[in-house]
Write a structure and sequence with these properties.
Blueprint: E1 3-12, E2 15-25, H1 32-50, E3 55-58, H2 66-85, E4 90-93, H3 95-103, H4 110-120, H5 130-145, E5 151-153
Parallel strand pairs: 3-4
Antiparallel strand pairs: 1-2, 4-5
Length: about 160
Amino acid sequence: MATVGYGIVNYDRNVFRVIQYGVIKTEAGLPASTRLLEISNDIGTLIETYKPDCAAVEELFFNSNHKTGIQVAQSRGVILLECCRRNVPLYEYTPLQVKQAVVGYGRAEKKQVMEMTRLILKLDKIPKPDDAADALAIAICHGHSSGVQGKHIDNST
């Protein structure tokens, strides 16, 4: 909830072009509802500004820290809602799928994924913060998968 990464890329004929990337940050002391509203507003602004053809998100993975998992789920829900509200088709990928698509090995280390993300996108340096680099890796995964491997989230209403 504190930092939500995003990456906007153009993918055409196996060539990626970075349009924008970064993070949405929310202040730790604010109520969760306020932080979620900020994320919602910022995601909505990104969608309205860049008009993406689709969106890709990472599938939820719960570890032993349930409090963090709940916050991630709430933030992810806001992202899904904003995409649905604006009729942006959604796809989700597991961390294993992202690593496989970016590095070619599903058990790759985070450093390997970040470096390959940099190389694939022809960037001078690894995107910072890590949340932005992760979002770009998910975008690469979706581009390489063309939605075939990703689980389509039905957001038609």
